[in-house]
Amino acid sequence: VTAVLPTDQPPLMHQAVDEAVRLLKEGEVVALPTETVYGLAANALDAAAVAKIFEAKERPSFDPLIVHLASKDQIDLVADVPPEISATLKKMVERFWPGPLTILLPKKPIVPDLVTAGLPTVAVRVSSNPIFRRVITGLGKPLAAPSANRFGSISPTSASAVQAELDGRIHLIVDAGACMFGLESTIIKIEPGTPKMFIDIVRPGPITPEDLKAYGKVRQATRTVVDEATAAPGQLASHYAPKTPLRLLERPEDFIPEEGKRYALMSYRGEEKDGYLNLCDWEEVMMLSPGNGKLPEAAVRFFYVLRALDKLGVDEIIAEPLHEHGMGIAMMDKLRRASRRV
Ligand code: TXA
Ligand code: MG
């Protein structure tokens, strides 16, 4: 059985943290909140513990994991920072850590090959979630943690979503409510260049090209290299897919509903002027940003809405396009992947 421990009162929070640390010390896996999505964590330096992550998620071993550090001082424990990029790296971690930015760096031998899927690089970040920070500090070891969903499925942004994905497969879920960002961290690689460094975005996320441009020339690696397994092997085209077929409609006029089929709409704001509301007799319409029509609100609700629409058992989920700036870049990337079922 999977225990779900609450954290909404101080004594309960301490109990949950202590139990998580105890299990992690025993080489078990634990689902923990981060500021992006819930992660399934294990001691990153213990290959046998890390193997349990792959097992619980049914994740193929070619898909490497992110290593979470307790603080930026721990980079040198797991990575060899090339001198050419060290000044830029230092500035970037000062600005973005703790927070939703993951950086690819050459790995040190102490990191098991299972964590990096045999790649010469390791993905590192420092989470800002206070519960996560307590656990990682209590353990005193880096934590490998992918999103706490089954492989290829929708990332969880609540403890109940983790439960829906992994119930019975893990001992503990620490429930700390909703995730602050709702989308997985931005993954980058810093490449030496003159006069500017290159900042290659391997996975778009909460830290946007706009945020990154002060540190180098930003390149959107995703679009071009996504299908080449080398860039971010987990960035498979079919990722983030709900079980229900999903179609991203770039324009409302492209939709011709089929007789007798049931459709649900993922709408940005549910506004008639966008032309999507009247296309058919929707089984359900869910809005990403009903409150203020802003991308960060949409991001927080994104996986929740996708998960809810997936449960309806409709024939197809239709998604309205989002503005492709800020966090809209990451959501459009995920919608494109979800709509391409390969
Ligand atoms: O926000 C996040 O990043 C969440 C929370 C839990 O920290 N974690 C997360 O992990 O999204 P995961 O495993 O679901 O996605 C990590 C991505 C995968 O697509 C993986 O292929 C890529 O990071 N990755 C990890 N190590 C890599 C490496 N050395 N080179 C290229 N891509 C790597
Ligand atoms: Mg994931």
TrEMBL record:
Signal peptide residues on this chain, from the entry's feature table: none
Subcellular location(s) of the protein: Cytoplasm
EC number, UniProt record: 2.7.7.87
Ranges where the YrdC-like domain occurs: 14-207
Coiled coil: none
Keywords: ATP-binding, Cytoplasm, Nucleotide-binding, Nucleotidyltransferase, Transferase, tRNA processing
Catalytic activity: L-threonine + hydrogencarbonate + ATP = L-threonylcarbamoyladenylate + diphosphate + H2O
Database matches in SUPFAM superfamilies: YrdC/RibB
GO molecular function: L-threonylcarbamoyladenylate synthase
Function: Required for the formation of a threonylcarbamoyl group on adenosine at position 37 (t(6)A37) in tRNAs that read codons beginning with adenine.
Family to which the UniProt record says this protein belongs: Belongs to the SUA5 family.
Protein name: Threonylcarbamoyl-AMP synthase
Organism from which the protein derives: Prosthecobacter fluviatilis
